[in-house]
Amino acid sequence: MKERHVLFEKYEMGRLLGKGTFPKVYYGKELTTGENVAIKVVGKDLVKKKGMMDQIQREISVMRLVRHPNVVELKEVMATKAMIFVI
């Protein structure tokens, strides 16, 4: 049986959907509602090393403001010491 990877007791992380320069995006599921989500995972060390922390913060700020049926909704942002998780 496959081991489940659960984030913050809220989201189950599934298969890799794609990856970019910094982040990787995984399929996920919200445990309470069963809703499908995308989980963008960004390593803090790499972002800091490349001087991209301001850009990541701006991206999150803009995503919080945008409400449109053709744009993915930002559910929440969570972090550990090493990683940022954008749901």
TrEMBL record:
Keyword Nucleotide-binding in record: yes
Any one GO molecular-function label of the UniProt entry: protein serine/threonine kinase activity
UniProt key word Nucleotide-binding: yes
Transmembrane segments: none
UniProt keyword annotations, A-Z: ATP-binding, Kinase, Nucleotide-binding, Serine/threonine-protein kinase, Transferase
Pfam families in alphabetical order: Pkinase
BP terms from Gene Ontology: signal transduction
Domain Protein kinase, chain residue ranges per copy: 11-87
Protein name: CBL-interacting protein kinase 25, SNF1-RELATED PROTEIN KINASE 3.25
Origin species: Hibiscus trionum
